[in-house]
Design goal:
This protein is an all-alpha fold. Helix content is 80%, strand content 0%. It has helices at residues 3-31, 36-47, 50-60, 68-95, 100-126, 134-162, 172-185, 189-206, 210-234, 238-281, 291-294, 296-337, 344-358. Keywords: Hydrolase, Membrane, Metalloprotease, Protease, Transmembrane, Transmembrane helix.
Length: 372
């Protein structure tokens, strides 16, 4: 079995097993966290920010879409594996004598960012070929953070409603306050923290320096822990302190991350064009196809044209061609930078074979429609 296939199987088996185990643990935890009615309400409220957040990260991922199975895997890892493991580690720390303040300000950030970041480490170890840079790291980190926040919010919302959070008698008013704070004002918190790890992993993939490939994810983890600790610590000083930290640090950091991600996304088009132009000079792809591959609107127009000219089958062929060309572009970009994976020649040949097999059966707007 080729190494890439073995790595993929190992990743799938490990992640699936841990997700199932984590789901069992969290099902038990949630079941003992409150009455069934409050848990249903908490789950529904916790789910409200999930769709918009996922949509934002999927939008960022449009130039070179990651496999849906891996994105879903990131969500499930965050929702079950990271939450369950973090609870276990924090329980050990509290049993060892850690105070509530120390747990909130130090233990929780350290354990939660480690358990969330573990998914990115597994990707880097076994599915490295799926990571093409910083933007991919941010997208996967975001998915893990969204999943983690969803499950954590269920616990917080149920505790607020049942009055078991130690902050009051509970009820609708407490539930509403917790919902506003966690689901409306700060649904981005966990994706933001873990995005630092994602950036570190993205830098590791694209770095030529061996030390940087190790230090970048570690540095990202440290920044994630620091941001998470600052966020948690702000709640210890009362509402006034929290909103000061929220307005002066966390919200600006989130806006800065958005700006950085948009900048990286905007640079994807130029990177793809340069890589495919070089690939075209090497005879790997027709130069006339490049404009239809590097622009998102042109891609959509090409798929629509294919469907109108040849029906669903032609559209599927166009999607397959575009997908192979996009993967070739990112792989060739890494080759030109000197950071290509060890199996880049084999992978590149696979993409070229797909392109050559499909190309006779597709045409772009303005080109002659092929006959079969």
């Amino acid at each position: 079995m080729p190494r890439r296939r073995r790595d993929s199987v190992a990743f799938t088996v490990v992640v699936t097993a841990l997700v199932l185990l984590g789901a069992v643990v969290m099902a038990v935890v949630i079941a003992f966290s409150g009455a069934p009615g409050s848990l249903v309400v908490a789950a529904l409220l916790a789910a409200l920010p999930v769709g918009p957040l996922v949509g934002c990260f999927m939008w960022l991922d449009r130039y070179e879409p990651e496999p849906r199975s891996l994105l879903v895997g990131g969500l499930l890892w965050g929702a079950f594996v990271a939450t369950a493991a973090a609870l276990i580690f924090q329980g050990i720390g509290i049993a060892g004598g850690a105070s509530d303040e120390a747990s909130l300000a130090f233990l929780a950030p350290v354990t939660e960012e480690a358990t969330k970041g573990a998914f990115l480490v597994l990707l880097l170890w076994w599915r490295r070929h799926e990571l093409d840079g910083i933007l991919d790291g941010i997208v996967y980190a975001g998915m893990v953070g969204i999943g983690f926040a969803f499950t954590e919010n269920i616990l917080y919302l149920a505790a607020a409603y049942n009055g078991t959070d130690g902050l009051g008698p509970g009820g609708t008013e407490a539930l509403t306050g917790t919902f506003i704070l966690r689901c409306l004002l700060s649904p981005f918190a966990h994706p933001l923290f873990t995005a630092f790890i994602g950036i570190g992993v993205g830098l590791a993939v694209t770095s030529r320096n061996a030390a940087a490939r190790f230090l970048a994810p570690v540095g990202g983890y440290v920044l994630a822990v620091m941001a998470h600790s600052l966020w948690n610590s702000s709640t210890l000083g009362g509402p006034g302190n929290f909103f000061v930290v929220y307005g002066t640090l966390m919200l600006p950091a989130f806006i800065a991350l958005i700006a950085f991600a948009l900048y990286r996304r905007g640079s994807e088009k130029g990177m793809m064009a340069a890589a495919l132009e070089d690939a075209s000079r090497r005879g790997l792809i027709p130069a006339t196809d490049i404009p239809w591959l590097v622009d998102l609107r042109a891609r959509r127009r090409a798929r629509l044209y294919a469907r109108q000219a040849g029906g669903p089958q032609a559209e599927r062929a166009m999607r397959e061609y575009q997908s192979a060309a996009i993967e070739l572009a990112y792989l060739h970009h890494r080759y030109l930078r000197g950071t290509a994976p060890h199996d880049f020649a084999q992978r590149g040949q696979e993409h070229v074979v797909t392109l050559n097999a499909v190309r006779p059966y597709i045409s772009f707007p303005g080109q002659v429609v092929p006959t079969r």
